[in-house]
């Protein structure tokens, strides 16, 4: 047997063993035997590089860094699904289906709605490419990352073109492990498994995807009818036989009543599943009916997604602690017995202010109902008064700063520490200055800032730029190596080049948010012009009101703040605006009020907003008669409908990208 034949034989065996281990959970060989074969294949490929392919088992551990993701046009559009939120919506869907096809009952397939990233795999014997959903028409080629998921077959025993779609997701255990690593590194935790999965698949470094413990379920054999398959349930069974990992919790339901029972069952079971689901997908099983049932512009009429209401759980409020923000604002926070909610473990939740706690009637020791607003931010809904034992303690607002001991003052519903030398305020100022939306100093997160502050390496934001003086001391701290500290110092040095709006936002001037910092920077071009502006002049700028104008003038009238700016200038921090006012003036979007709705494949919402604002647009969150343009991505909802009703110009993603050029 020559090297080529042996490599093919080992590849086939390793693919078989991957299927047994990752799909069937029933390995037929030991780890040692698997590793022995893998090492033999690595040796063969090293001796004969021409045998190595991107789909080889040896390449499924990542390690390649790509420049970018190329665009892929889907052979068939990847449509979104219409949503149902209650039994009434489900029965209305069933009635529409029966009215079109006739009959008393329809057979439906009910499946888990996996909370992950939609994906398409295209094969012709071997995997040709894997593409994200994108805008439904065009996605991104992420094959190099997807192939690191070992349950996905690189070859299938089927002649002809074959496309299957599904969801790449992060199991709950993988998210817990990842967030533990993020926490240890002092970096931001992932809010949920969906965000973590999407971020991993769209990372240009394939080793990141390979390290994240991703998985996938496949739920739609797109061209099944080309192979003589009539029913969706049969198509899924064939996918199983071809080696794809399909979800075993699916169920054929005879009529909508059985669907509703299934939904009730899995509403209860949802939290016990090893992965996150955010609903149940219901599909007509007979694919011969799909064309008859038809499609809207965005969704098929033969399927619907039932969305779960926000998940609510009960846990104990063990304490209320206080944090001090960079402006001195005191925020009470609930300390909770750890509990999993909507995909992640929750131990803290903000209680906003004294009035919020009083309105909820919360007591320390209460059992409370919590949920995640928008499935992201933990919030305390209410106490479970029926479970009170009499040992609960009433809440009393503190009167002194928990860090420096200074007396607090109350303004409106908030309490503030006014001591400018309060350590908590200093730390929060440093964290804010370093944050992604401000100076974007990667590696200087909350925990690192607190550690360095405690060690005395810096006491204000100027000290960030003198951190290199403490390099030898930092290397001696646990968890720090030469490479990690040098990466941080490089990020600090690079931040000096940022445009004016970033440093202006980072300075933490009261009332100057990220958007206003950009408006002011575009208007004044440099910090000196802004410092010289009067209240009257500032009030002439759209969206600048009396409170903001006064706050700016007051801040720049403070000698210590002027000293801070001058020190940063001496260190080499840029205070000039780097955006193009000419480009903005000539842009289609200049002076227009724009609303973004739906999901864009090319940019996140924040990135798209920044690009529009750079071009002179005003980006708002709601559609009204004052709106000039609505940019509609995938799954655009009521905002798009309202735009059509008002006769507002609507751009799809492709048109938006063309105008950006």
Oligomeric description of these chains: single chain
Shape: globular
Overall mean pLDDT stands at 88
Structural class, by secondary structure, is alpha+beta
Measured on Cα atoms, how large is the radius of gyration? 28 Å
The helix tally amounts to 26
User: Roughly how many Å apart are the termini?
Assistant: 56 Å
Strand proportion, as a percent range, falls in 15-25%
Question: How much helicity do the residues have?
Answer: 25-40%
Task: Give a count of the beta strands, DSSP E runs of length 2 or more.
Answer: 24
What does the main sheet amount to?
A: 7 strands, antiparallel
Low-confidence stretches: none
Describe this protein's structure.
This protein is α+β, with helices and mostly antiparallel strands. It has 26 helices and 24 strands. The protein starts with a helix and ends with a helix.
Helix and strand layout, with pairings?
Layout: H1 3-23, H2 31-47, E1 71-73, E2 83-84, H3 87-101, E3 107-114, E4 117-124, E5 126-132, E6 138-140, H4 143-146, E7 161-169, H5 172-184, H6 193-201, H7 206-211, E8 215-221, H8 232-241, E9 251-254, H9 256-269, E10 277-284, H10 290-293, E11 303-307, E12 312-324, E13 329-341, E14 344-350, H11 354-360, E15 363-364, E16 367-373, E17 377-383, E18 393-394, E19 408-411, E20 414-417, H12 423-434, H13 446-455, H14 461-464, H15 471-475, H16 482-495, H17 500-506, H18 514-524, H19 527-531, H20 535-538, H21 546-557, H22 559-571, H23 581-585, E21 593-597, H24 605-614, E22 618-620, E23 629-632, H25 638-646, E24 649-652, H26 653-660
Parallel strand pairs: 2-11, 21-22, 21-23, 23-24
Antiparallel strand pairs: 1-6, 3-9, 3-10, 4-5, 4-7, 7-8, 10-11, 12-13, 12-16, 13-14, 13-20, 15-18, 16-17, 19-20
Helix pairs in contact: 1-2, 12-13, 17-18
């Amino acid at each position: 047997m020559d090297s080529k034949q042996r490599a093919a034989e080992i590849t086939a065996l390793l693919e078989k063993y991957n299927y047994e281990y990752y799909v069937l959970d029933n390995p037929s060989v030991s780890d040692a035997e698997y590793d022995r074969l893998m090492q033999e294949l690595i040796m063969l490929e090293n001796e004969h590089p021409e045998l190595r392919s991107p789909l080889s088992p040896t390449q499924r551990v990542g390690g390649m860094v790509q420049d970018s993701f190329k665009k892929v046009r889907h052979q068939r559009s990847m449509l979104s699904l219409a949503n149902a939120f209650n039994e009434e919506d489900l029965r209305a869907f069933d009635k529409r289906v029966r009215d079109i096809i006739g009959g008393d009952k329809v057979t439906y397939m009910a499946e888990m709605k996996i909370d992950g990233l939609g994906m398409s795999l295209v094969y012709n014997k071997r995997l040709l490419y894997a593409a994200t959903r994108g805008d439904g028409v065009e996605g991104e080629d992420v094959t190099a990352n997807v192939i690191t998921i070992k349950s996905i077959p690189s070859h299938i025993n089927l002649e002809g073109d074959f496309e299957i779609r599904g969801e790449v997701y992060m199991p709950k255990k993988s998210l817990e492990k990842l967030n533990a690593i993020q926490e240890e590194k002092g970096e931001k935790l992932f809010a949920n498994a969906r965000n973590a999965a999407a971020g991993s698949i769209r990372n240009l470094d394939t080793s990141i995807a390979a390290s994240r413990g991703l998985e996938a379920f496949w739920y739609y054999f797109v061209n099944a009818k080309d192979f003589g398959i009539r029913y969706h349930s049969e198509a899924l069974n064939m996918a199983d036989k071809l080696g794809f990992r399909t979800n075993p919790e699916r169920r054929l339901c005879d009529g909508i009543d059985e669907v509703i029972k299934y939904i009730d069952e899995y509403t209860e079971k949802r939290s016990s599943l090893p992965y996150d689901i955010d609903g149940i997908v219901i599909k007509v099983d007979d694919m011969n009916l799909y064309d008859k049932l038809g499609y809207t512009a965005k969704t098929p009429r033969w399927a619907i997604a039932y969305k779960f209401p926000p998940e609510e759980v009960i846990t104990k409020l063990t304490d209320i602690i206080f944090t001090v923000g960079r402006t001195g604002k005191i925020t009470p926070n609930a300390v909770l017995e750890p509990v999993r909610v909507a995909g992640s473990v929750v131990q803290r939740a903000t209680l906003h202010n004294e009035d919020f706690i009083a309105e909820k009637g919360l007591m320390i020791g209460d059992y409370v109902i919590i949920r995640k607003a928008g499935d992201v931010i933990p919030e305390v809904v209410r106490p479970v008064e029926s479970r009170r034992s009499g040992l609960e303690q009433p809440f009393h607002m503190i009167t002194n700063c928990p860090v420096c001991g200074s007396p607090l003052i109350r303004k409106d519903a908030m309490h503030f520490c006014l001591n400018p030398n309060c350590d908590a305020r200093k730390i929060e100022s440093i964290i804010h200055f370093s944050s992604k939306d401000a100076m974007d100093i990667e590696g200087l997160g909350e925990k690192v800032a607190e550690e360095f502050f405690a060690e005395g390496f810096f006491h204000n934001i100027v000290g960030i730029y003198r951190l290199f003086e403490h390099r030898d001391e930092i290397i001696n701290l646990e968890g720090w190596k030469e490479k990690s500290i040098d990466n941080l110092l490089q990020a600090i040095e690079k931040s000096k080049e940022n445009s004016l709006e970033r440093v202006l936002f980072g300075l933490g001037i009261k009332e100057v948010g990220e958007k206003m910092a950009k408006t002011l920077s575009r208007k004044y071009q440099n910090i000196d012009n802004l410092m010289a502006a009067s209240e009257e002049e500032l009030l002439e700028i759209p969206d600048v009101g009396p409170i903001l104008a006064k706050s700016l003038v007051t801040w720049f009238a403070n000698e210590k703040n002027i000293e801070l700016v001058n020190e940063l200038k001496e260190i080499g921090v840029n205070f000039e605006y780097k955006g193009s006012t000419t480009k903005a003036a000539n842009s289609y979007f200049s002076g227009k009020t724009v609303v973004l709705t739906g999901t864009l494949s090319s940019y996140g919402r924040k990135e798209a907003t920044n690009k529009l604002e750079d071009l002179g647009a005003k980006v708002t969150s709601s559609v009204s008669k004052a709106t000039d343009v609505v940019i509609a991505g995938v799954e655009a909802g009521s905002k798009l409908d309202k735009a059509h009703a008002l006769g507002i110009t609507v751009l799809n993603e492709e048109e938006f990208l063309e105008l950006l050029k």
